[in-house]
Specification:
This protein is an alpha/beta fold. It folds into two domains: 3-71 and 186-346, Aminopeptidase; 73-171, Elongation Factor Tu (Ef-tu), domain 3, CATH 2.40.30.40. The chain has ten helices and 18 strands. It starts with a helix and ends with a helix. The relative contact order is 0.19. The model has no long low-confidence stretch (mean pLDDT 95).
Length: 347
């Protein structure tokens, strides 16, 4: 990948992860992405339920390249008598991955308050050690609360700040470019792929990428809660290719340095012919990729499209990511290989 493209993609990734966008609270990130595409010269279609559709041009069979801009996070469930916040997760944020995260609480009046997710009994020096030998087994209902960075100690004092049940709590991403091309941040799932698609669209807009397919970009904002992207899709498409993370773990073929092609998720196998074409494209263009199966709890925007009965071939490809839904890590090589595979596939 050219240095200029790499720098643009990383700049966009850092900007995207810095925008709070827990599912259901994606207005700011949608506005940011819409502005970026419009500045490239594209018309952007918006949807009542959220999300964006951009026509990149090209001719022939239609293909949608999709990524989601929503994040996992938390929501205020109730205010406790000591002024701390009992919370419930939005999407698949496990309690042990939320513990000790810095957060921002967004009220419906537009105020923002910082805080931290903590165990109720969080001081190891004055609590029995066995309480710290367990994971956060009681989860959000009993063990974990959000402690606000405000001098509050009663329910009334927290209510006076304007905080209410249903307010969104977004986690601090802690973005970092580390040694040897490693990228660490929350929400690489799936803002790494949004940044990749923005880079691809920029190349097409500047005339550096000739499209052999009628190509659309779809940015979804409800993926983390399973609603998917089965609405507002063009009629001429025959393929829907979601860009989403590959899951790196022992026993998996996926790697933080590779483009990862999903053969099967938690529900069903993806289209065999589409996966085969992606593999041929990778082989012919020297792309470092892996084929993998993500089970038992992986899903993507493709799942919603297929479940809706839409007559398309569906697949998933994306960069390999470690510690998914936690403090995630990937490598620039995985982004470059994913970019190269998708670019070659539609070129």
């Amino acid at each position: 990948m050219k240095e200029q493209l790499r720098e643009y993609m990383l700049q966009q990734l850092q900007a995207l992860v810095g925008i709070d966008s827990t599912t259901g609270f994606c207005y700011a990130v949608e506005a940011y992405i819409k502005k970026q595409f419009e500045e490239m010269g594209y018309a952007v279609r918006t949807f009542n339920r959220g999300g964006l559709l951009i026509d990149l041009g090209g001719s022939g069979e239609g293909i949608v390249l999709s990524a989601h801009a929503d994040d996992i996070g938390l929501m205020v469930r109730r205010i406790l008598p000591d002024g701390t916040l009992q919370v419930v997760q939005v999407g698949g944020l496990r309690p042990e991955y939320a513990d000790l995260a810095n957060v921002r609480v967004h009220t419906r009046a537009g105020a923002v308050y910082t805080g931290t997710v903590r165990r109720k009994e969080s001081s190891i020096h004055v609590n029995p050690i066995e309480k710290f030998s367990r994971e956060t087994s009681g989860g959000y209902d009993t063990n974990l609360v959000v402690v606000l960075d405000k001098k509050v100690s009663t329910e009334a004092e927290t209510l006076a700040l304007g905080i209410r049940c249903g307010d969104i709590i977004a986690l601090e991403p802690n973005f970092m470019l580390a040694d040897d091309g490693y990228i660490k941040s929350r929400f690489l799932d799936d803002k790494a792929c949004v940044a990749l698609l923005m880079t691809l669209a920029r190349e097409a807009a500047q005339g550096n990428l000739s499209l052999s397919r009628h190509t659309y970009v779809h940015i979804a904002v409800t993926e983390e809660t399973g609603m998917g992207a089965a609405y507002g899709l063009p009629e001429d498409i025959t393929e829907f290719l979601a860009l989403d993370i590959g899951c790196v773990s022992p026993g998996q073929y996926s790697s933080e340095h590779k483009a990862c092609i999903c053969a099967r998720d938690a529900r069903w196998p993806y289209d065999y012919s589409l996966i085969s074409k992606l593999c041929r494209t990778g082989d012919e263009n020297g792309i470092d990729y892996a084929i993998d199966i993500y089970n038992p709890s992986y899903g993507s925007d493709v799942a919603g499209v297929l479940a809706s009965g839409r007559d398309v071939r569906g697949g998933v490809v994306g960069p390999g990511v470690l510690t998914t839904h936690g403090y995630e890590r990937t490598n620039i090589c995985a982004l470059e290989n994913t970019y190269g595979l998708i670019e070659a596939y539609i070129r």
